[in-house]
Amino acid sequence: MEQSRDERSLGELFSDLSRQTSVLVRQEVALAKTEMSQTAREVGKNVAILAVGGAVVYAGALAILAAIIILLAELMPWWLSALIVGIVVAAIGYFLIDRGRDALQRTPLAPEQTVESLKEDRDWLKEQA
b or e along 98-115 (b: 16 or more beta carbons within 10 Å of the residue's beta carbon)? Predict the structure, then answer.
């Protein structure tokens, strides 16, 4: 006959708490792994899309820049038109790189759900002890 919860010894209660804590920790680790793999998969997919889009835009931009250089060469020497276009393009590129870097720095990489769940588990363990 199984003892009721109120009749168990202190050792049995601590043993039960230890088992529950062990299961909880394993579940939290599994959650963290799942969350991190989902984040990595999403980031990888988005980076691939960015790379392909960037290559296409790059090809189009080269053609447009060549046309602008040729157009400006009607008004000034070729070297000067190429220099002006190069400086403008470099300035725009710097702005875009800076903006992208700032956006990446604001992207949270920590498993937020797992961290929150661990805080709840810590509070639960304090109550149990």
Answer: eeeeeeeeeeeeebeebe
Whether the predicted model's global pTM rises above the 0.70 cut: no
pLDDT for 112? 77
Alpha-helical (H) ranges within the chain are 10-73, 78-105, 112-128
Residues 20-44 have a mean pLDDT of 87
Q: How far apart are CA 81 and CA 66, in angstroms?
A: 10
C-alpha to C-alpha distances, 26 to 16, 113, 118, 122, nearest whole angstrom: 16, 15, 11, 14
SS3 110: coil
Report d(CA 119, CA 129) in Å as an integer: 16
- What's the rounded Cα separation, in Å, for the pair 65 and 85? 7
